[in-house]
């Protein structure tokens, strides 16, 4: 009888994979040299026994947290340079997340977050307290304001503190991994600088990245993903720049541009629709203005 078999005999509630987890049950997860994993219900084991087992075995790697076929494919693509998974999705968004603890069933957490965001979204774990939610974007996808409600619900249900970083929309194409890498780097960098921010997004993070000496490649990437779709529209760029320079005063900006206020509003709405930047908010207006200035010098 091997060691895991003996442990299953000693702890009747022990299981061989996260797909077998019982709702509401917490587990100690261990892995042997052959790669087998075992989850022992925390209530069935003492602290001394847990400490002994953790000296004899290792904690499972991130691959053991991604049990579904889709999770494994996306994990391999994002972290191991495998091929882009075949999907019918056209656009996605990465929502990076950090958890304060993992004292709950990860499968229950996956079920909860995907049901709140969209049933076809995929949560890919980096480890038991970090992961990325790959959200298929559609007309009824959650906005940033709705993420606050999502965060409050999950924190209340699982007694966990969460931090989210909402990336921007991306086409499902070969450059997707680079977008993921840059967004993750930005999140990791800003998380330490903004400890009180529970939800971050690219526009809010940009001024902080800039103040810390943003690498040139990420600076160019920021320009492309946030305002790249409108850079060739000189009239639109000039309108937005003038509007922000006028302190977001629509009447003043319209006079400066010699256009009707309704025409100004139409251009602002067009800019927001094409970039996702709502320049009526300070964070988005600041980032839009900085990117416009930088793009003219790149």
UniProtKB/TrEMBL annotation:
Source superkingdom: Bacteria
A Pfam match is HTH_30
Xref: Gene3D superfamilies: PucR C-terminal helix-turn-helix domain
What InterPro entries does this protein map onto? CdaR-like_regulators, Homeodomain-like_sf, PucR_C-HTH_dom, PucR_C-HTH_sf
Where does the PucR C-terminal helix-turn-helix domain lie?
236-292
Q: Which PANTHER family match?
A: CARBOHYDRATE DIACID REGULATOR
Name by which UniProt lists this protein:
PucR C-terminal helix-turn-helix domain-containing protein
From which organism does this entry originate?
A: Peribacillus saganii
């Amino acid at each position: 009888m091997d060691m895991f078999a003996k442990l299953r005999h000693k702890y009747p509630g022990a299981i061989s994979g996260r797909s077998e987890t019982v709702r509401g049950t917490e587990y100690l997860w261990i892995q042997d040299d052959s790669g087998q994993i075992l989850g022992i219900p925390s209530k069935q084991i003492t602290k001394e026994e847990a400490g002994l087992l953790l000296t004899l075995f290792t904690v499972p790697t991130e691959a053991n947290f991604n049990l579904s076929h889709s999770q494994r494919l996306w994990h391999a693509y994002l972290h191991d340079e495998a091929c882009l998974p075949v999907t019918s999705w056209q656009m996605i968004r990465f929502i990076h997340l950090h958890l304060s603890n993992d004292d709950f069933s990860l499968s229950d957490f996956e079920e909860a977050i995907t049901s709140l965001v969209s049933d076809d979204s995929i949560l890919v774990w980096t480890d038991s307290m970090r992961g990325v939610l790959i959200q298929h974007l559609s007309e009824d996808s959650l906005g940033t304001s709705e993420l606050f409600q999502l965060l409050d619900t999950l924190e209340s249900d699982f007694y966990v503190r969460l931090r989210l970083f909402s990336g921007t929309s991306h086409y499902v194409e070969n450059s997707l991994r680079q977008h993921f890498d840059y967004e993750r780097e930005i999140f990791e960098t800003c998380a330490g600088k903004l400890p009180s921010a529970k939800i971050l997004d690219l526009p809010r993070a940009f001024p902080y990245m800039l103040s810390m000496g943003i690498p040139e490649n990420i600076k160019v990437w920021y320009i492309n993903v946030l305002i790249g779709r409108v850079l060739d529209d000189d009239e639109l760029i000039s309108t937005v720049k003038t509007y922000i320079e006028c302190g977001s005063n629509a009447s003043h900006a319209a006079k400066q541009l010699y256009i009707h206020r309704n025409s100004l509003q139409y251009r602002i709405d067009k800019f927001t629709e094409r970039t996702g930047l709502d320049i009526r908010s300070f964070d988005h207006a600041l980032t839009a203005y900085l990117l416009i200035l930088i793009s003219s010098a790149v």
